[in-house]
Specification:
Length: 183
């Protein structure tokens, strides 16, 4: 003979589970998530800030931040300043599709890095330049640019950016084996 559990057993179980979640706060934290697009394309590795935490977007331009229940704070893209930030108050549920579309007027900067100690000046391949700057409206920019095999670099930066090349890292030379030839 089958043993049947009365309906009160099921109600007691569901009620105890709900009470446990309410008392111990063991429900899932709400999340703030979305995508970042730059000129119509998903922006990979764009740094997103939620309160004191930072996270880059993934290869598809997506981000997700779990936040504590009742969280107050700002989520934004620090490098674009306060225009790319949203204030949240008393977060109680998920906020999905919190997307940013970045459309700035960009220009291309380019040039060639050479070794002035050689005659004629030889191109320097694999040089990393740290380009820093700010626009007249206070937006900051921080990007590393790498030269190609001919010492040439190209980068798209916001129009009006005042640029300082703060540092460069020369390429690491590969030593030739004794007697010459390929490694």
């Amino acid at each position: 003979m089958k043993q049947r559990h009365p309906i009160w057993f099921l109600l007691l179980f569901v009620g105890a589970f709900a009470l446990c979640q309410a008392l111990c706060g063991c429900s899932r934290a709400p999340r703030i998530s979305g995508m970042v697009f730059r000129h119509g394309e998903p922006a990979a590795n764009e740094l997103i800030q939620a309160g004191e935490f930072y996270m880059p977007t993934n290869a598809l331009g997506r981000y997700t931040f779990p936040v504590p229940l009742g969280w107050d704070g700002t989520v934004g893209i620090p490098r674009y300043g306060p225009l790319a930030a949203v204030q949240y108050l008393n977060v109680q549920e998920d906020h999905i599709d919190q997307n940013w579309i970045i459309e700035m007027n960009f220009v291309t900067i380019s040039g060639r890095v050479t070794d002035a100690t050689t005659q004629p000046a030889a191109p320097l391949a694999g040089v990393t330049m740290e380009v820093r700057g700010s626009t007249p409206d206070g937006q900051t920019w921080d990007e590393d640019i790498l030269t190609d095999p001919n010492g040439v670099y190209n980068a798209r930066v916001p129009k009006g950016l005042v640029i300082t090349v703060e540092n460069y890292t020369p390429p690491v030379p590969v030593p030739e084996p004794p007697g010459g030839g390929a490694v």
